[in-house]
Every structure is written in C-alpha cells, then in structure tokens.
Write a structure and sequence with these properties.
By secondary structure, the protein is an alpha+beta fold. The chain is built from 6 helices and 5 strands. The chain has a domain at 116-191: Mannose-Binding Protein A, subunit A (Mannose-Binding Protein A, Chain A, Roll). Keywords: Membrane, Transmembrane, Transmembrane helix.
Length: 195
Amino acid sequence: MANRRKPPRKTSGNKKQESSHKHPGGGNRGHQQKKRPDHGRSNRHQQHTVATKISETMKELPMKAPHQSGGSSGTLVKVIGFLAVALIVFFGYFIVQEYLDKTPVYGKHGWDEEAGSPVAWEDAVRYCSSRRKRLPDKEELKTFSKRADKKIKTIGLFWSTSAAGDKGDYMTVNLGSGDFSPSPSTNKFAVICVK
C-alpha cells in the first residue's frame, strides 16, 4: 500500500481514443456504440439558409436607402442644377449683349452698309425716307458707334433726329468716339439710316 501509483488523468483526447479501441470480444465494453446524427449536413443547410437570407436582405437595402436618405440629396442636386442654369443664363445675357454691342447690324433689317454723302439735316431726313428707312436718334447712333465698321467710324459726324434746343439745331454724333454735340440744321454732315 505504500507505493500505490495514481493512474494518469484521462483527457478528452484520451477518452476519444479509448472509445475507438475495441475490446477483444469484438464489442465495445459490452455495449454497442450509438450512431451519432450527421451534424455536418444540417450545418451546411443552416449556413445555406442564412446566406440566402442575407443576400435577400442586401438586395432590398439599396432600394430602400435612396427613398429614406436620398430624398435630401436629390433635392440638393436639383437646387445645384437650378443655380448652375441660372448663372449660365445670367452671365450669358451679358456676354450676348457685349457681342451685340460690338457686332454690326447691317442689311435690310438694320443699318445702312454705307454712309450717305454729307448733306443738310432736312436732306438727310429725305434721303432716309427715300430708302424706306429713317434717320436714327442720338442714342441709337451712340449705341451703333460701338459696333460700327471702321470705314464708317472714320467718316466722323452723323446727323440724328434728336433736337438740340429751340433754335432748330439737331444733335450730331461722332461714330469714332461716340460723342455728340448740337449743330445747326444747315451744316452738312454724313447720313446713315436705320430700319
């Protein structure tokens, strides 16, 4: 009794090994081993079911997300688009005006392509009437001076229909500079007519 050895502890690995060892009688410690159910097949089925549910949920998420949070971003995009169009129209208007101010408008719907010879004011009015046009006023001539051809600008002063005082004087406009000044109607200046 003095030298009794304790048997080694059995670990779980040892238990598995022991259970797989068969006793000489052909049985396993006198009783038959029970078959365990195949857990691998049910685990695979559960994994497949979970994966299918996750994929269905993921397919639904992108459709729901734009309706909830996309409403505000869609509105923001519309506002930015509207502001961009408004700015383009605003600056486009001034660009077109600048272009029109510097582009000559000649031909049957606009100004004469060539200036008439210097005449008195009454003859200038008759000249434009004979062409089925009219003599422009000083503001029209001033605007036209910005887009007139160089050949016309070099001529100098042109008659206008704008009266200058009570003496029968009329305004003349220098197409080269855009300046205007009163002149007696008997003086002779160049004529250009407008539709």
